[in-house]
Give the backbone structure.
Amino acid sequence: MTDQGVLKVTKSLIIWLFFTLLCGAIVFYKQRLLFADSSHLLFRMINDGSVQIPAFRYGIILPQLLPLEGSLFLLPLSVLMLLYSFSFSLLYTIVALLLIDKFERYDLGILFGFCLCLFVGDTFYAPNNDSIQALMWLLLAIAVPEYFVKKNGSFLLSLLLFFLFFSFALWCHPLSVIMAVYLFLFFWFNKAYSLWPKNQFIFLLIAAVFVLILRIYFNSRINYDSDILAPLFKLRFREIPGLFVNTQACLFLKNCFTNYWGFTIVFCCGIYGMIRAKKYAILTLTLFFSIGYFLFVCATYSQVTKTFYVECEYMPFAVFCSLPFAVFFLPLLSPKSIVIFIGLLLFSRIAYMLMAAPVFIERVALLEGVNEKMRKNNYHKAIVWDDKGFFNARIIMDWASPEESMILSALKDEHPQRTFLIVTKQDLDKIQLPGKDTLLGRFEKRGYLQLNNNYFQLDTTDTYHIINP
Protein backbone atom coordinates (compact mmCIF):
# COMPACT_ATOMS: atom_id res chain seq x y z
CA MET A 1 0.00 0.00 0.00
CA THR A 2 1.38 3.44 -0.92
CA ASP A 3 1.97 6.22 1.57
CA GLN A 4 -0.77 8.26 -0.13
CA GLY A 5 -3.16 5.36 0.41
CA VAL A 6 -2.30 5.25 4.10
CA LEU A 7 -2.92 9.00 4.23
CA LYS A 8 -6.45 8.63 2.93
CA VAL A 9 -7.24 5.90 5.45
CA THR A 10 -5.74 7.51 8.57
CA LYS A 11 -6.80 11.08 7.88
CA SER A 12 -10.41 10.76 9.04
CA LEU A 13 -9.44 8.71 12.11
CA ILE A 14 -6.89 11.23 13.36
CA ILE A 15 -9.22 14.16 12.68
CA TRP A 16 -11.98 12.31 14.57
CA LEU A 17 -9.63 11.96 17.55
CA PHE A 18 -8.82 15.66 17.66
CA PHE A 19 -12.45 16.74 17.37
CA THR A 20 -13.39 14.27 20.12
CA LEU A 21 -10.73 15.79 22.38
CA LEU A 22 -12.06 19.22 21.44
CA CYS A 23 -15.56 18.23 22.59
CA GLY A 24 -14.12 16.76 25.79
CA ALA A 25 -12.32 20.03 26.54
CA ILE A 26 -15.69 21.82 26.41
CA VAL A 27 -17.65 19.27 28.45
CA PHE A 28 -15.01 19.00 31.21
CA TYR A 29 -13.80 22.60 31.17
CA LYS A 30 -14.42 23.10 34.89
CA GLN A 31 -12.53 19.96 35.92
CA ARG A 32 -9.62 20.89 33.62
CA LEU A 33 -9.38 24.51 34.71
CA LEU A 34 -9.85 24.04 38.46
CA PHE A 35 -6.66 22.02 38.71
CA ALA A 36 -3.12 23.07 39.61
CA ASP A 37 -1.22 24.93 36.86
CA SER A 38 -4.29 25.77 34.77
CA SER A 39 -6.12 27.62 37.55
CA HIS A 40 -2.89 29.27 38.74
CA LEU A 41 -2.01 30.60 35.28
CA LEU A 42 -5.58 31.71 34.52
CA PHE A 43 -5.79 33.52 37.86
CA ARG A 44 -2.54 35.35 37.18
CA MET A 45 -3.51 36.17 33.60
CA ILE A 46 -6.75 37.80 34.72
CA ASN A 47 -5.15 39.77 37.56
CA ASP A 48 -1.89 40.75 35.85
CA GLY A 49 -3.44 41.39 32.43
CA SER A 50 -0.58 39.64 30.63
CA VAL A 51 0.57 36.23 29.41
CA GLN A 52 2.32 34.04 31.97
CA ILE A 53 5.73 32.53 31.14
CA PRO A 54 6.92 30.31 34.01
CA ALA A 55 10.56 29.15 33.89
CA PHE A 56 11.12 31.01 30.58
CA ARG A 57 8.81 28.62 28.70
CA TYR A 58 7.89 31.07 25.94
CA GLY A 59 6.42 28.37 23.72
CA ILE A 60 3.33 27.93 25.90
CA ILE A 61 1.76 31.36 25.35
CA LEU A 62 -0.59 30.62 22.42
CA PRO A 63 -3.37 28.91 24.44
CA GLN A 64 -3.33 31.87 26.83
CA LEU A 65 -4.27 34.44 24.20
CA LEU A 66 -8.00 33.68 23.96
CA PRO A 67 -8.76 33.85 27.72
CA LEU A 68 -6.48 36.88 28.12
CA GLU A 69 -8.29 38.76 25.36
CA GLY A 70 -11.58 37.68 26.88
CA SER A 71 -10.62 39.13 30.25
CA LEU A 72 -9.75 42.46 28.62
CA PHE A 73 -13.27 42.50 27.17
CA LEU A 74 -14.68 41.57 30.61
CA LEU A 75 -16.25 38.31 29.46
CA PRO A 76 -17.77 36.19 32.27
CA LEU A 77 -15.32 34.06 34.24
CA SER A 78 -17.01 30.84 33.12
CA VAL A 79 -16.47 31.89 29.50
CA LEU A 80 -12.77 32.59 30.17
CA MET A 81 -12.40 29.11 31.67
CA LEU A 82 -14.16 27.57 28.70
CA LEU A 83 -11.94 29.51 26.28
CA TYR A 84 -8.76 28.42 28.09
CA SER A 85 -9.76 24.75 28.16
CA PHE A 86 -10.94 24.92 24.56
CA SER A 87 -7.88 26.79 23.27
CA PHE A 88 -5.47 23.90 23.91
CA SER A 89 -7.51 21.41 21.91
CA LEU A 90 -8.34 23.99 19.25
CA LEU A 91 -4.65 24.71 18.72
CA TYR A 92 -3.79 21.00 18.50
CA THR A 93 -6.67 20.39 16.06
CA ILE A 94 -5.53 23.20 13.76
CA VAL A 95 -1.96 21.87 13.74
CA ALA A 96 -3.19 18.31 13.07
CA LEU A 97 -5.27 19.52 10.13
CA LEU A 98 -2.26 21.38 8.73
CA LEU A 99 0.00 18.35 9.09
CA ILE A 100 -2.41 15.93 7.44
CA ASP A 101 -4.44 18.05 5.02
CA LYS A 102 -2.13 20.88 4.01
CA PHE A 103 1.36 19.40 4.32
CA GLU A 104 0.28 15.78 3.68
CA ARG A 105 2.51 14.43 6.45
CA TYR A 106 0.33 11.57 7.64
CA ASP A 107 3.22 10.16 9.71
CA LEU A 108 3.49 13.36 11.72
CA GLY A 109 -0.30 13.53 12.06
CA ILE A 110 -0.43 10.00 13.47
CA LEU A 111 2.54 10.77 15.72
CA PHE A 112 0.81 13.86 17.10
CA GLY A 113 -2.49 12.05 17.60
CA PHE A 114 -0.90 9.10 19.37
CA CYS A 115 1.08 11.42 21.65
CA LEU A 116 -2.21 12.98 22.72
CA CYS A 117 -3.74 9.67 23.75
CA LEU A 118 -1.33 6.75 24.30
CA PHE A 119 -0.23 8.03 27.73
CA VAL A 120 -3.26 10.18 28.45
CA GLY A 121 -5.83 9.40 31.09
CA ASP A 122 -5.60 11.71 34.08
CA THR A 123 -3.44 14.07 32.00
CA PHE A 124 -6.46 15.04 29.91
CA TYR A 125 -7.64 17.00 32.95
CA ALA A 126 -4.29 18.81 33.22
CA PRO A 127 -4.32 20.61 29.86
CA ASN A 128 -1.31 22.81 30.49
CA ASN A 129 1.05 20.09 29.23
CA ASP A 130 4.28 21.78 28.14
CA SER A 131 5.75 18.65 26.52
CA ILE A 132 2.77 18.30 24.14
CA GLN A 133 3.10 21.94 23.13
CA ALA A 134 6.83 21.39 22.58
CA LEU A 135 6.09 18.45 20.27
CA MET A 136 3.57 20.57 18.36
CA TRP A 137 6.21 23.20 17.60
CA LEU A 138 8.73 20.50 16.65
CA LEU A 139 6.34 18.99 14.11
CA LEU A 140 5.70 22.41 12.59
CA ALA A 141 9.47 22.99 12.45
CA ILE A 142 9.73 19.82 10.35
CA ALA A 143 6.66 20.17 8.12
CA VAL A 144 6.62 23.89 7.27
CA PRO A 145 10.18 24.27 5.85
CA GLU A 146 9.75 21.01 3.94
CA TYR A 147 6.52 22.35 2.41
CA PHE A 148 8.36 25.46 1.21
CA VAL A 149 11.06 23.31 -0.37
CA LYS A 150 8.48 21.23 -2.25
CA LYS A 151 6.74 24.39 -3.49
CA ASN A 152 10.04 26.10 -4.41
CA GLY A 153 9.25 28.84 -1.92
CA SER A 154 11.57 31.34 -0.28
CA PHE A 155 14.38 29.60 1.58
CA LEU A 156 14.94 32.66 3.78
CA LEU A 157 11.31 32.55 4.94
CA SER A 158 11.45 28.81 5.56
CA LEU A 159 14.69 29.27 7.56
CA LEU A 160 13.11 32.00 9.68
CA LEU A 161 10.01 29.89 10.32
CA PHE A 162 12.14 26.89 11.23
CA PHE A 163 14.18 29.00 13.66
CA LEU A 164 10.96 30.37 15.20
CA PHE A 165 9.17 27.04 15.56
CA PHE A 166 12.26 25.18 16.75
CA SER A 167 13.00 27.89 19.32
CA PHE A 168 9.43 27.78 20.64
CA ALA A 169 9.69 23.99 20.90
CA LEU A 170 12.88 24.03 22.92
CA TRP A 171 11.56 26.84 25.13
CA CYS A 172 8.46 24.83 26.06
CA HIS A 173 10.01 21.95 27.96
CA PRO A 174 13.49 20.43 28.45
CA LEU A 175 12.17 17.11 27.10
CA SER A 176 11.87 18.75 23.69
CA VAL A 177 15.66 18.41 23.33
CA ILE A 178 15.39 14.61 23.53
CA MET A 179 12.46 14.50 21.11
CA ALA A 180 14.17 16.88 18.66
CA VAL A 181 17.37 14.80 18.50
CA TYR A 182 15.41 11.58 17.97
CA LEU A 183 13.23 13.05 15.21
CA PHE A 184 16.24 14.50 13.40
CA LEU A 185 18.20 11.24 13.50
CA PHE A 186 15.17 9.18 12.52
CA PHE A 187 14.56 11.19 9.37
CA TRP A 188 18.30 11.36 8.69
CA PHE A 189 18.65 7.57 8.69
CA ASN A 190 15.45 7.28 6.67
CA LYS A 191 16.89 9.69 4.05
CA ALA A 192 13.97 12.08 4.45
CA TYR A 193 16.22 15.10 3.88
CA SER A 194 17.24 14.07 0.36
CA LEU A 195 14.85 16.61 -1.20
CA TRP A 196 16.75 19.47 0.47
CA PRO A 197 19.54 21.22 -1.45
CA LYS A 198 22.72 20.51 0.48
CA ASN A 199 23.63 24.15 1.18
CA GLN A 200 20.12 24.92 2.49
CA PHE A 201 20.10 21.87 4.74
CA ILE A 202 23.43 22.92 6.27
CA PHE A 203 21.95 26.33 7.17
CA LEU A 204 18.99 24.61 8.85
CA LEU A 205 21.31 22.29 10.74
CA ILE A 206 23.44 25.20 11.98
CA ALA A 207 20.30 27.03 13.15
CA ALA A 208 19.10 23.91 14.99
CA VAL A 209 22.45 23.34 16.73
CA PHE A 210 22.63 27.01 17.75
CA VAL A 211 19.15 26.92 19.34
CA LEU A 212 19.92 23.57 20.97
CA ILE A 213 23.13 24.81 22.60
CA LEU A 214 21.38 27.99 23.74
CA ARG A 215 18.57 25.99 25.34
CA ILE A 216 20.95 23.65 27.17
CA TYR A 217 22.89 26.66 28.46
CA PHE A 218 19.78 28.43 29.79
CA ASN A 219 18.37 25.18 31.16
CA SER A 220 21.35 24.93 33.52
CA ARG A 221 20.47 28.37 34.88
CA ILE A 222 16.76 27.76 35.46
CA ASN A 223 16.24 26.49 39.01
CA TYR A 224 13.00 24.64 38.28
CA ASP A 225 14.46 22.51 35.48
CA SER A 226 17.89 22.08 37.05
CA ASP A 227 16.32 20.89 40.32
CA ILE A 228 14.38 18.20 38.46
CA LEU A 229 17.52 17.03 36.66
CA ALA A 230 19.69 17.12 39.81
CA PRO A 231 19.25 13.38 40.63
CA LEU A 232 20.49 12.51 37.15
CA PHE A 233 23.76 14.38 37.60
CA LYS A 234 24.31 12.76 41.00
CA LEU A 235 23.73 9.27 39.63
CA ARG A 236 26.68 6.88 39.89
CA PHE A 237 27.41 4.16 37.36
CA ARG A 238 26.96 1.36 39.89
CA GLU A 239 23.46 2.68 40.68
CA ILE A 240 22.19 2.26 37.11
CA PRO A 241 21.10 -1.41 37.45
CA GLY A 242 18.94 -0.41 40.40
CA LEU A 243 16.96 1.98 38.20
CA PHE A 244 15.39 -0.99 36.41
CA VAL A 245 13.65 -2.10 39.62
CA ASN A 246 12.94 1.16 41.48
CA THR A 247 9.43 2.47 42.21
CA GLN A 248 9.06 4.34 38.94
CA ALA A 249 10.34 1.45 36.82
CA CYS A 250 7.88 -1.00 38.40
CA LEU A 251 5.02 1.47 38.00
CA PHE A 252 5.79 2.08 34.32
CA LEU A 253 6.26 -1.58 33.40
CA LYS A 254 3.07 -2.57 35.22
CA ASN A 255 1.06 0.15 33.46
CA CYS A 256 2.43 -0.91 30.07
CA PHE A 257 0.20 -3.99 30.42
CA THR A 258 -2.72 -2.64 32.47
CA ASN A 259 -3.23 0.96 31.33
CA TYR A 260 -0.89 1.90 28.51
CA TRP A 261 -1.09 -1.42 26.69
CA GLY A 262 -1.76 0.50 23.47
CA PHE A 263 1.79 1.82 23.68
CA THR A 264 3.13 -1.71 24.11
CA ILE A 265 1.28 -2.91 21.00
CA VAL A 266 2.32 0.08 18.88
CA PHE A 267 5.93 -0.21 20.05
CA CYS A 268 6.14 -3.92 19.19
CA CYS A 269 4.48 -3.36 15.82
CA GLY A 270 6.96 -0.59 15.04
CA ILE A 271 9.88 -2.89 15.88
CA TYR A 272 8.42 -5.57 13.60
CA GLY A 273 8.01 -3.01 10.81
CA MET A 274 11.61 -1.83 11.12
CA ILE A 275 12.94 -5.41 11.08
CA ARG A 276 10.73 -6.24 8.09
CA ALA A 277 12.04 -3.16 6.23
CA LYS A 278 15.61 -3.97 7.31
CA LYS A 279 15.98 -0.53 8.90
CA TYR A 280 18.44 -1.72 11.52
CA ALA A 281 20.03 1.69 12.08
CA ILE A 282 16.61 3.19 12.94
CA LEU A 283 15.79 0.14 15.05
CA THR A 284 19.00 0.62 17.04
CA LEU A 285 18.28 4.34 17.36
CA THR A 286 14.74 3.71 18.65
CA LEU A 287 15.81 1.10 21.18
CA PHE A 288 18.68 3.29 22.37
CA PHE A 289 16.41 6.29 22.95
CA SER A 290 13.65 4.17 24.51
CA ILE A 291 15.93 2.44 27.02
CA GLY A 292 17.91 5.63 27.66
CA TYR A 293 14.77 7.65 28.31
CA PHE A 294 13.39 4.88 30.53
CA LEU A 295 16.50 5.19 32.71
CA PHE A 296 16.20 8.99 32.60
CA VAL A 297 12.61 8.87 33.91
CA CYS A 298 13.48 6.29 36.57
CA ALA A 299 16.40 8.44 37.77
CA THR A 300 14.68 11.84 37.83
CA TYR A 301 11.17 10.78 38.90
CA SER A 302 12.03 7.71 40.97
CA GLN A 303 9.36 8.32 43.64
CA VAL A 304 6.76 10.26 41.62
CA THR A 305 3.61 8.17 41.33
CA LYS A 306 0.84 10.71 40.70
CA THR A 307 -0.66 9.52 37.41
CA PHE A 308 -1.37 12.90 35.84
CA TYR A 309 2.25 13.97 36.46
CA VAL A 310 4.09 10.89 35.23
CA GLU A 311 1.89 10.69 32.13
CA CYS A 312 3.33 14.04 31.03
CA GLU A 313 6.85 12.68 31.44
CA TYR A 314 6.04 9.44 29.59
CA MET A 315 5.00 11.32 26.44
CA PRO A 316 8.39 11.00 24.60
CA PHE A 317 7.88 7.22 24.67
CA ALA A 318 4.89 7.83 22.40
CA VAL A 319 7.22 9.61 19.96
CA PHE A 320 9.67 6.70 19.92
CA CYS A 321 6.92 4.17 19.17
CA SER A 322 4.52 6.11 16.94
CA LEU A 323 6.87 7.22 14.20
CA PRO A 324 8.27 3.73 13.35
CA PHE A 325 4.70 2.40 13.58
CA ALA A 326 3.38 4.97 11.09
CA VAL A 327 6.30 4.80 8.65
CA PHE A 328 7.15 1.08 8.63
CA PHE A 329 4.20 -0.91 9.98
CA LEU A 330 1.02 0.75 8.73
CA PRO A 331 1.96 0.39 5.02
CA LEU A 332 2.00 -3.40 5.59
CA LEU A 333 -1.72 -3.44 6.43
CA SER A 334 -4.82 -3.33 4.28
CA PRO A 335 -7.06 -0.21 4.50
CA LYS A 336 -9.69 -2.16 6.43
CA SER A 337 -7.12 -3.45 8.91
CA ILE A 338 -5.77 0.06 9.47
CA VAL A 339 -9.23 1.42 10.22
CA ILE A 340 -9.97 -1.39 12.72
CA PHE A 341 -6.51 -1.27 14.33
CA ILE A 342 -6.24 2.48 14.85
CA GLY A 343 -9.97 2.92 15.47
CA LEU A 344 -10.01 0.44 18.36
CA LEU A 345 -6.81 1.88 19.79
CA LEU A 346 -8.06 5.47 19.76
CA PHE A 347 -11.50 4.50 21.06
CA SER A 348 -9.93 2.62 23.99
CA ARG A 349 -7.80 5.63 24.95
CA ILE A 350 -10.84 7.92 24.88
CA ALA A 351 -12.51 5.41 27.22
CA TYR A 352 -9.56 5.66 29.64
CA MET A 353 -9.89 9.46 29.64
CA LEU A 354 -13.58 9.17 30.48
CA MET A 355 -12.87 6.64 33.23
CA ALA A 356 -10.53 9.19 34.85
CA ALA A 357 -13.30 11.82 34.96
CA PRO A 358 -14.93 10.77 38.31
CA VAL A 359 -11.71 11.53 40.22
CA PHE A 360 -11.64 15.10 38.93
CA ILE A 361 -15.39 15.57 39.30
CA GLU A 362 -15.03 14.49 42.94
CA ARG A 363 -12.09 16.86 43.29
CA VAL A 364 -14.23 19.86 42.33
CA ALA A 365 -16.93 18.62 44.72
CA LEU A 366 -14.36 18.52 47.55
CA LEU A 367 -13.37 22.12 46.84
CA GLU A 368 -17.04 23.11 46.82
CA GLY A 369 -17.52 21.28 50.13
CA VAL A 370 -14.84 23.36 51.84
CA ASN A 371 -16.31 26.55 50.38
CA GLU A 372 -19.73 25.52 51.69
CA LYS A 373 -18.27 24.91 55.16
CA MET A 374 -16.73 28.38 55.08
CA ARG A 375 -20.07 29.84 53.97
CA LYS A 376 -21.88 28.30 56.95
CA ASN A 377 -19.28 29.79 59.32
CA ASN A 378 -19.29 33.11 57.46
CA TYR A 379 -15.56 32.79 56.73
CA HIS A 380 -14.04 34.28 53.58
CA LYS A 381 -10.44 33.22 54.18
CA ALA A 382 -9.28 29.95 55.67
CA ILE A 383 -6.35 27.62 56.13
CA VAL A 384 -7.44 23.99 55.84
CA TRP A 385 -5.41 21.93 58.30
CA ASP A 386 -5.04 18.51 56.73
CA ASP A 387 -2.77 16.99 59.34
CA LYS A 388 -3.24 13.33 58.35
CA GLY A 389 -3.07 13.97 54.61
CA PHE A 390 -6.35 12.21 53.79
CA PHE A 391 -7.82 15.28 52.12
CA ASN A 392 -4.61 15.94 50.21
CA ALA A 393 -4.66 12.41 48.75
CA ARG A 394 -8.17 12.92 47.35
CA ILE A 395 -7.48 16.43 46.09
CA ILE A 396 -4.42 15.08 44.14
CA MET A 397 -2.57 18.42 44.09
CA ASP A 398 -3.25 21.15 46.65
CA TRP A 399 -0.71 23.89 45.97
CA ALA A 400 -3.12 25.96 43.82
CA SER A 401 -6.06 25.66 46.24
CA PRO A 402 -6.14 29.44 46.96
CA GLU A 403 -6.68 30.23 43.28
CA GLU A 404 -8.99 27.26 42.67
CA SER A 405 -11.24 28.11 45.63
CA MET A 406 -11.43 31.78 44.73
CA ILE A 407 -12.33 31.00 41.11
CA LEU A 408 -14.95 28.51 42.26
CA SER A 409 -16.43 31.09 44.63
CA ALA A 410 -16.51 33.68 41.84
CA LEU A 411 -18.38 31.21 39.62
CA LYS A 412 -21.09 31.14 42.30
CA ASP A 413 -21.26 34.94 42.07
CA GLU A 414 -20.07 35.48 45.64
CA HIS A 415 -18.71 38.94 46.54
CA PRO A 416 -16.18 38.97 48.10
CA GLN A 417 -14.97 35.50 47.18
CA ARG A 418 -13.93 32.75 49.56
CA THR A 419 -10.40 31.38 49.40
CA PHE A 420 -8.50 28.73 51.32
CA LEU A 421 -5.06 27.16 51.44
CA ILE A 422 -4.59 23.45 52.26
CA VAL A 423 -1.63 22.70 54.55
CA THR A 424 -0.23 19.98 56.80
CA LYS A 425 0.82 20.67 60.40
CA GLN A 426 4.45 20.90 59.26
CA ASP A 427 3.52 23.59 56.71
CA LEU A 428 1.26 25.33 59.21
CA ASP A 429 4.15 25.95 61.57
CA LYS A 430 6.07 27.71 58.78
CA ILE A 431 3.27 29.95 57.55
CA GLN A 432 3.34 33.63 58.41
CA LEU A 433 -0.23 34.83 58.22
CA PRO A 434 -0.62 37.96 56.07
CA GLY A 435 -2.61 41.07 56.87
CA LYS A 436 -6.34 41.26 56.29
CA ASP A 437 -5.84 42.88 52.89
CA THR A 438 -3.59 40.14 51.46
CA LEU A 439 -4.36 36.86 49.68
CA LEU A 440 -2.22 33.97 50.91
CA GLY A 441 -0.99 31.70 48.12
CA ARG A 442 1.38 28.75 48.18
CA PHE A 443 4.18 30.64 46.42
CA GLU A 444 3.15 34.28 46.70
CA LYS A 445 1.14 36.79 48.67
CA ARG A 446 -1.08 39.11 46.65
CA GLY A 447 -2.54 42.37 47.98
CA TYR A 448 -6.18 43.16 47.28
CA LEU A 449 -5.13 46.01 44.96
CA GLN A 450 -3.30 43.42 42.80
CA LEU A 451 -6.58 41.68 42.04
CA ASN A 452 -8.67 42.48 38.97
CA ASN A 453 -11.70 43.96 40.71
CA ASN A 454 -13.92 43.05 37.75
CA TYR A 455 -13.50 39.38 38.63
CA PHE A 456 -12.11 39.01 42.15
CA GLN A 457 -12.62 40.86 45.43
CA LEU A 458 -10.87 39.97 48.68
CA ASP A 459 -12.53 40.43 52.08
CA THR A 460 -10.25 42.98 53.78
CA THR A 461 -12.15 42.86 57.08
CA ASP A 462 -11.63 39.17 57.85
CA THR A 463 -8.53 37.27 58.96
CA TYR A 464 -7.54 33.71 58.05
CA HIS A 465 -9.30 31.02 60.08
CA ILE A 466 -7.91 27.53 60.64
CA ILE A 467 -10.46 24.83 59.86
CA ASN A 468 -10.51 21.06 59.39
CA PRO A 469 -11.42 19.66 55.95
